[in-house]
Amino acid sequence: MTARPFLYDYWRSSASYRVRIALNLKGIAHDSASVDLVRGDQRSPEHLDRNPQGFVPALRIDGLLLTQSLAIIDYLDETRPEPPLLPPDATGRARVRALAHAVAMDIHPICNLHVAAHVMARHPDAPEAARQDWMVHFITRGLDALERMVGAGAYCYGDTPTLADICLVPQIYNARRWGVDLTRHPRLVAIDAACADLPAFADAHPDRVKPA
Amino acid sequence: MTARPFLYDYWRSSASYRVRIALNLKGIAHDSASVDLVRGDQRSPEHLDRNPQGFVPALRIDGLLLTQSLAIIDYLDETRPEPPLLPPDATGRARVRALAHAVAMDIHPICNLHVAAHVMARHPDAPEAARQDWMVHFITRGLDALERMVGAGAYCYGDTPTLADICLVPQIYNARRWGVDLTRHPRLVAIDAACADLPAFADAHPDRVKPA
Asked: What residues of chain B lie within 8 A of the CB of A157, using their CB?
């Protein structure tokens, strides 16, 4: 018997949030543990053995230990095809991946915890203000482009949720956390609201998985 | 007749370099034009119509205009399967994607031109030094993890080049550009050298495509 999948998670990690949504969309029952990024658990030898990058998420599944949220989600989609997280045609997949990567490559990493910490360290006079400016600048810039890139359907691409929505929703959560003005992004806000109506997205929300 | 593929390129862009390697590995004849990122061509209305993100590369192919280097490479691999850029099994694909994303998500975006420019603007007293410190810090950190993640074969994963090598080689070029000490990364340096022996990689090198 293969062990039940196990997610090394952190409630506020966008990358973990993506994998939680994907696991829910696929209906994959699993257990999880919190790796407390604020306490520094990700730098423990135990976690670095799981993931030399010192990031969450990591997922034990099918006897494997997988890292990198989008690689994990591709694996889930390939091994558990229903419901699909990518369109059936190569063109559609290219569009969805471009949208997903516009968030996962071009916004999220720049605003990651360790990058923000480095920015703060370089501005010892006003670290909080430096972080705040940094977050708002790069999230706004990225979402401005994304607003022009998404389609006219209910979701980022067409009328079913895809990998692009899985990346968008945690980024919008993050934008709100940092007080980004989203009035410039009505399409993205509408898509985020449509996703919030789906249990797979709602159940993955940070507030629902935050350790007590 | 479908038009010949056309790449909007920039010689020093890591993301463009990746797509050049992939086009070469697939043997896809194409034309290209330089979008001069230093001159600011990427912010022209013409280029923003191609890509609202204002990034290179963008690729016209099969009547489509595609953006995001890894989405483009996945599209090429799906529509031109030989030689494959990903392993045949889901586990191998997850490993290769994790390696590729450890570069393309966790190093490259943080060191992108527009991010470095923002760092420099925040340090008007010593902008060049601030940029240099930034580059070395994040490239070193990322490569340290990657050195632990790659396999024991000739390339990042096994004995044929994959998407992971396509991401690694431009990052090593970039590391050398910024004077990163690579003595800590003997495996990565060896893989980079193995790739350099392949015409598909050598012909894509920035020095080979730099405008006169």
From this structure: none
